[in-house]
Amino acid sequence: MAEIIKKKFAFYIPSLQGGGTERFLVNLLNGLGEGNSDLSLILEGTHGEYFNSLPKNINIVSLNTHRIFKIFFKLIKYLRNEKPDIIFCALPHVNIVSILAVIFSGSKTKIIISERSTFSRLASHSARKLSHKLIARFVFPLLMRALYPKADAIVCVSNGVADDLIKIVGNLRNIKVIYNPVARPDVIRLSKDSVEHEWFLDKKVPVILAVGRFTKAKDYPTLLRAFSIVQNETDARLVILGKGEEKEKILSLIKSLGIEKNTALLGFQENPYKYMSKATVFVLSSTLEGFPNVLVEAMACGAPVVATNCESGPCEIIINRESGILVPVGQEKELSEAINYILKNENFRKKISANGLARAEFFSFNKGIAEYKNLFNELLK
Predict the structure, then answer these.
(1) Rounded to two decimals, what is the model's pTM?
(2) For residue 333, what are the CA distances in angstroms to 34, 125, 193?
(3) Is residue 3 part of a domain?
(4) Which of 69, 171, 208, 308 is the most buried (most CB within 10 A)?
C-alpha cells in the first residue's frame, strides 16, 4: 500500500454519533496510519459513540458550537492559524461551509468533500418543516452548483451517488468514486466475541438482525410488518441494534403488530459484528442509502443478507440471489418472502453466505484506504 505524504491533514464532521458517515471517518482516520502526528479532527462538540475508536495520536479540535455562522468564522480562523495542507469534510452543509471558509480565509489548503448519499432524495426525505424543504430543494442545489466546482476533489461513495450529484452540479472533472473502506481486518476478530443475549445462545430459533439508526430512511416499519408476516410461517426472532429519533414510533408499531415477545431493540453496540456473525439472516430495509457499510460488514461476518434495492449502494454490493437477495423498497410482502426463503433453505443460505463473504473482499479496508492515500498524494504533488 502506498504511503501517504506526511503533511498536515484536517478532517471536519459535526459529531461522532453512531451513524455510517461517522463510522466511515473513524475507519479512514485509523487507516491513515499510526505515527502521523499531523492528523486533526474538527468537531462541533467532543461527544459521540465513536469517540473512543479514534487513533490515539489524533488532535481533536472542538468548535464548541452548532451555529453555522460561528462555525464559518471559527473555520476561517483555524485555516489561517493552522494552515493544513488538506481539509476533508463530509455531509452537504458541512461541505458548503468548508468551501466558503477556505475561500474567505485566503488559505492554500486543498479541500476534499465527500458525498455520502443521493442528495436529490435526501433533500425531500429528511426535511420536515416547509422552510427546511425549500432550503433543501432550492437553496442547497444552487449553492452546490456554485461551490462544488471549487473543491479540489469530490469523493462519492458509490456510482449511484455520483450519478445523482452530476444531475445537480454537472459532470465535473473533480468527481471521483471511492467505495468506503469497510471490511476492516479486525472485523473478523471482533465478530468472534461472545453474545450474552439468550436469543443468540438458542440455536433452535433463527434470529433476524438489522443494524442502523432509527430514522425514516431506514424504514423499520416495513421490516417490522415483514417480520409479523414471517411470524405466521416461521418461529423466528428479530433484533435491531441502533438508536434515534424514530424509536418511540417503532416501539408503538411493535406493540400494535403484537410482536413484542419476539422483537428486541438492543440500542447502539460498539461491536455489532459479534451479532452479525451469529444472526441467521441480516436485513437492510432502507428507502435511501449512499453506501450501506453495515451490509458489507454483515457479509464480511458471514451473515446471509437481504436488502431493499434502494438508491443507492445495495445493487452495487449484492449480486442478486448469488451474494444476497434484493427486494423492492417498502414492500413488506416481498421482504417477508425473501427472509422466509433464506430461513427455510439451508443450502441457499450457505451459498449466499459464502458468496457474500467473498464479495465483501472487493470492499476491503486496505483497498479503500489505498485509494484515499493515492488521492491525497495526487493533490499534494
Answers:
(1) 0.89
(2) 48, 23, 34
(3) no
(4) 308
